[in-house]
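User: I'm writing a short methods note and want a consistent example. For Protein crumbs homolog 1-like, I'll paste the sequence; you return only the structure tokens, no commentary, since I'll be parsing the reply automatically.
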Amino acid sequence: MDMDLTVLGSVWLKLVACVLFLLLQWTENLTLPKTSTLCLDKPCQNRAECREAPSDFLCQCKSPAPVLPSTRCDSSSALCQLSICQGNATCQPTGAHPGELVCQCEPGLLGQECHSSAQLCAQGLCGDTSQCLAVQDRSPGYACICQEGYTGSSCEKKVDHCSPNPCRNHAICRSRRDSPTCFCVPGFQGKHCEIEVNECVSWPCRNGATCLDKIGHYICLCRPGYTGSSCEVQIDECQSQPCLHGGSCHDHINGFSCTCLAGFQGERCETNIDECSDQPCRNGALCVDEINSYRCDCSQTNFTGVDCEIPPPPCWSQPCLNGALCEDENGNYTCSCWPGFEGRNCETDVGECDSSPCVNEGTCIELSWKTLYGTEPLFPTRYNPRHASGFICKCPPGFSGALCEQNTTSCTTNPCHNGAICEDFLGSYKCICLSESQDGILYGGRNCSEPLVGCEGHECQNGAACMPFLSEGVHGYSCICKPGYTGSYCQTPTVFSFETIGGFLHLQTPLLGAETYFNITLSFRTVLKNTLLFQRGSEGVSLSLELQETHLLLDLKSDPQPNATIWTLTLPQDVSDGEWHTVEAVLGEGTLLLQLLEPCQDGDNCSATAQLETGALELESSLQSTFVGRSYEGGGSGSFIGCMRDLFVDSQLMVPENCLSSSVVNVEQGCSHHDRCLSGPCENLGKCVNLWLGYQCLCLRPYVGQNCAEESVTARFGQEDSASYAVFTITDQLESDTLYLSMFLRTRKESGLLVLLANSTTEYLKMWLEKGKLMVQVNNLKTLMGKTVVNNGEIHFVCITIKEGMLTLQESDHEFRAMDVQPVSLQFEDVVYVGGLLDRHETSAFGGYFKGCLQDLQLNERKLEFFPLDASVMSYRPDLMVDVTPGCTSDDSCSKNPCQNGGICFSLWDDFTCNCPPSTKGQHCEEVRWCELTPCPPQATCRTLNQGYECISNVTFQDNTTLVYHGNRLISRHLTSIVFSIRTRKRNAAVLHAESGSDFVTVSIQDGFLVLELLSGPSSSSSLSPVTLHSPRPVADGEWHVVELSMASPWANNSQWIMVPLDEKDEPTISDAMTGNLDFLREGVDILLGGLGPESGWNLIGCLSNVEIGGIMLPYYGPAEVRFPRTQKEKFNKLSKEPVQTGCVGEVMCEPNPCLHGGICDDRFNLFQCICLPGWGGDRCELNTNTCASNPCQHGHCSVQDLSYSCMCESGYTGTNCEVKVDVCASHECVNGGTCLRGFNIYSCLCPDRFTGPYCKPPKLPVSICGDEQQNYTCFNGGNCSDTNMMCDCLPGFSGHWCELDLDECRSNPCLNGGYCQNMVNKFQCVCEMTFAGETCEVDLSAENVSSDLLLSISLVSVALLLVLFGVATALVITLNRRATRGTYSPSRQEKEGSRVEMWNIVQPPPMERLI
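Assistant:
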């Protein structure tokens, strides 16, 4: 039984298919128009072609010559009256006036019945482009032969190829000039839109989605985790930020994962890990959970630490009182008391008032008495134990001071004036007047109120200051003398000078007794480093003051014997500077004192003392005699030269003019010192030192001599590149752990040995030049390199110091230090090599022999003199000198004529400079600036090379242009690359080709792609195969492309080859095989550029830039085409004699202009493109795209849609051109007698009684009338009246006050798998798609477990639905035939997407019907 039902269902399906097919054919036949049958009778004779006209036919005759067709091709033309065109005659324009025609006989047929005479034909009958045909027995006697695409009596109409309509499947037909064009609706294609498109063929759905083919589109059923029209978008589950607490979200297919921050866990990091779960806090502390950590609150305990594990220290209980500081000590504590407190815990207050310190009945108050704070005005407002030490005396009236010791009664009235200071004095006061005036006036008197006028007309001399005073009412003044003067008016000078050796001043002092106080004070100035100032005592005890090495020294001797007791005092200051200094020497009370009476610098000691026993000294007799300026023995070795003033002996001023002439020898009054350095005797920046009677010059190196006028002799090494060196031997023993080596250096050589120190076992110090910088090595270990370059021909001072394990290298003003250098010292018989070693080979390890000049070479402050100046100078002399000459003469660098190209040579020190002629440069004028000489043709650009130039330009190659090149046999570099730029549209052409034996290279364009073919290497090598590279994209597109071909390993003999990307988006192309380089092109090989020769068919048509092979250019210009020869060593020579076409010029594509209707022609290099004006399109702007120009929309807005238009109608209008006014009630749905009420674009239904709703339908459920006569209401949809005022009790599925609202059970979208939900009373119904079933469309009918019974049931239901569809389609076709010119279809959308147009405005079913 199941099998019979299945067969029955299959028969029904076939029956329905046949019915639908017949219906489709019938529908197409309905659209065919009636066809003319005039040509069916074949009226034309002689194999003529019959052409239909709207109401007639024409015959197109077959003839080798152009013949006007006749009606039947059997009668003569009757256009020309009187003389008729016969035979093979044609009617042609005369050329005199437009529209004039004459009969013209064919050549060679004059002997037949063709007459040459003719009458003018009808003028302007058929237009300028049509032919005219004579027609007998018909008015007006002619017919027009129209061109293709036109018809009508005068060819005024276009032929409509769309009648009948050849397009199928609702496609739009568009009539063209010679044929119709069908614009298909989405889902169909083909010439007549007869093929249904399967949009799933191209597999548009991505990521494993299932494609469902629909009419005009497709649907993708995406796998979980994907979305988008083609399932191309992976759903980002992280977009909603599902990870909490800062977790990082990682998107996966149909899911996500979270990486949680430390301290969180869970699928979404929603759980905060409780670090307090392990109870880490101790001693009862509270644990506070935090993010990825915890915190212990120790505030409620006495413990500390991270986990409150540390017990409180002893100071925690604050045992120290009175603000004392508590300090923990090994489990105990100590209290640091503030001043004023004591005891273990600072609990005892020290009683400062116990000793009654306050006098004059003052009250003592201790600062530690807390109760007085805030009430006692002498106390601060608050008590602070830190400042509680001490006391305050509260004085009675009339007393003040810290202890109330001052009587303030006298000064309280401020009796002193003019800034004077008042002091209490014996129950009264005294005023201390100011000694410096503030307004130019000094004041005196008891109260400092009287101006002092004693200095008016004073007689103070020699710049002395006048000081006025007031004494017992009498004004006077006193003179304050400057140093060097004395007297009441400072009129007597105290200055005297010793200007010659042996001068002295002898003084005698009286006997003063055993306890005598001896002192001498004097001021002096001198420049002597060693001299005697004074000596007191001649026999026995003596006291002397002298200068030793610029320092003061005081000696006290008990007697002249050698074993006598000596006391010595010294001061560190330098007093031999020619300035005034004051010194005091005192002997008394067992003390010897020496002090400098002047301001002392910080840290200096300006005085010195010594304790001594004077009991054994006989002072009173020995110290009576004093010699000033020399000792009592006489002699000139210690004589003083200089000036003295203000000499006090035992506090008595000694004035030179009062001394006896016998006690003064060679002493002059005044100080007539002359500065010997004022004349500038020192030369070469030497520093002059004044020596009172002469001067001394401190010379800068390398200058010597009394006036620094002489210079150390310079030693010249390497004159004219000779091998020069010198050898010295250390001839004395130097007790020093410091090594100091210095010299002046001048050189232009960047390498060479300077100095080498060696002993009998090793070379312990080396100094040489390397790359122009100094190199120093100690003990063959540590090497130090200088920073600056010293081989620039300038003089450089170089110094090396090795001291205490530190190496210091000084280059003029630059110092560099290197630690951890082993100490070295200069020993007896050590050897010093200067400039080089005895062995040339050993010297070459340091860069060879030194070439340059050395001057003032010193080793530990001893000179190494190559040519001594003074034999008395401590120096070392050379043991051996080879080719070392005095002076620093230069080599004659110009003797070898180093300047090229006509440059003039000028000598410098060990160098030269070339004065180069114009357009040349370089040290030897070897670089010619060729491009400044404009050697290239005007259309080329010059590029300067290292030794020559090249002319750069683009060149146009025609089909017959091929250039030939040869290498010049001087190319030494390896040729590993080919670089050029190309522009062409030729798809097959040779760019470059060369071959030599089995080696060859070809760069060509094949099918538009660039191709490299290369084989190079030893002919015996069988492992090499040709390399072939193809460009990833075509280059024959008329655009410029940069081509770079190179070896992957240019240093190797064999390597892969690389094609550098033509575009940044491409990857480099690398060959699979390996081959050699292009060195076989260097000589004797023809290199063809631009083709393979005439008639080859592979010549290039396009443009090339300059081609470079291995960086060497293939020139486009021969020797006759440039002004100067190309002088570079490596080059290719052009052998072709024909000139090239400079620049990149293509064929002229825009003359004449191929673009129609004002279009602009754009020349795209051997191709043109038309830029059309608005309203025109097509390759030549031949298509009119402004279909809205005629304003076809009557009540709407027109928009252009490719070759058609669409109308957007105004409100209230419809139709193709918005020509139909809409009647909103024409198709109203008001039923049950409802009246249609017109509104603005809408209507409403006026319902009779017992009907309701928008369309006057009966209520779904009965209604109830509730209330009374006073107030009533209606309960709809079966609602019942309730006790609540104006409310109804509603049945399930309804709501509202009067149950007027039907609940929408479809609001929750219960239908699955695309099912359509229908709302019903208190329920819903799902209308499923064909492959699903069930109450909510949850059953997939395509699954294997669906039974055959269910399939049969579905098939029967489908047949029934198809029958219904059959009826609907029939009615639709009839309607379409009736309303071919009406409806809402808009033809302006006919070309929306190419030849496929959406036509959803044509009878679009509602969504629910489409689902069914």
